[in-house]
Amino acid sequence: MDFNLSSEQEMLRDGLGRFLDARYGLETSRAAAKTGPGWQPEVWRRFADELGILGVLLPESAGGSGGGPVEVMVIAEELGRALVIEPFVDTVVVAGGLLTRADGESASAVLERIADGSAVVALAAGEGTEDWEAPSTTAIRDGGGWVLTGSKAVVMSAPIATHLLITAAIGDMIALFATEFDASAPPPGLQVHSYRTIDDRRAADIVLDGVRLPGQALIAADGRESLARARDEGAAAVCAEAVGGMRKVLADTVDYCKQRQQFGTPIGSFQVLQHRMVDMYMELEQAVSAVYLAVLNLESDPISRSRAVSAAKVTVGRAARFIGQQAVQLHGGMGMTEELAIGHYFKRLTALQYEFGSTDSHRTRY
Length: 366
Prior knowledge:
Elements (H helix, E strand, L loop, with lengths): L6 H17 L2 H10 L5 H11 L17 H13 L6 H13 L4 H11 L5 E4 L13 E5 L2 E12 L6 E8 L2 E8 L9 E7 L5 E12 L4 E3 L3 H36 L1 E2 L2 E2 L4 H26 L5 H30 L9 H12 L6 H7 L1
Parallel strand pairs: 1-4
Antiparallel strand pairs: 2-3, 3-7, 4-5, 5-8, 6-7, 9-10
Helix pairs in contact: 1-4, 4-7, 5-6, 5-7, 7-8, 7-9, 7-10, 8-9, 9-10, 9-11
């Protein structure tokens, strides 16, 4: 099995890496997350116009490039290395995949807007548990439209979204609805409680109290299989993002240990600390291999796909915890300060362990 990237994939990785090194500063992104709109819309536009990465998974008919899981892995790893807060996984990977497999002109129209950078799409599927397969939110036919009643918890990227994808039960089926959205001016019956997460992302809890949607908002009458695939695709993407973050954390820790002096010598010369850094490297390499396994099985049958993704999620979750904790310890008290990048990466690596299913839930599923 060939694990080498193609020349096109290497160009994609190198071009994105150079862009982020030159134009994506950590201080600027943290300031936008804490005091601004929660993200950098101008960077999102550049992702579309200059790099074309927002259409990487989308069909050519929607303005995309028709790429696959390996391209997503390459992009997600680079975004993780730079600690990018813009919602690539939420909008392009998860929502983009659901919309590509959906029906109707409304889904195609949103896909085109994702590709050109004018749309941010959030999936409202979770309801306080890790299970997407049994929503208590219901959709009832009312004339030519639909009425949705229920609630959704921790809807990532909802406060900055232009569109929502909402799951709701219609009998035994899990339907998927698409609607335009503005968290600052929600439609009648829809309540939005927005907040900033520990890793500087934006999320919201949503209550739907008889929210009315037009008939064309239904883009999948039974999206159960598509949702299961989207969750695995999202999990694989955040695992790749975690690998990028862990690479950066390990490199910064090694550099710090070469510079930090103790008893007149760099602490990196102490054998016990060298052993720690070797253990961090070994955990990272296992995580890389697990991500490859997951990515190469995303287009396999559902059982092979789910087993490979869960194996990756558990392996990456363990590695992220270990590498993050060791990095903070080796940096001493400075490791958790706002001034050093390590603390921000540690928060993101912690949050990634719970996105698209926790480490424990994926171990159980495996």
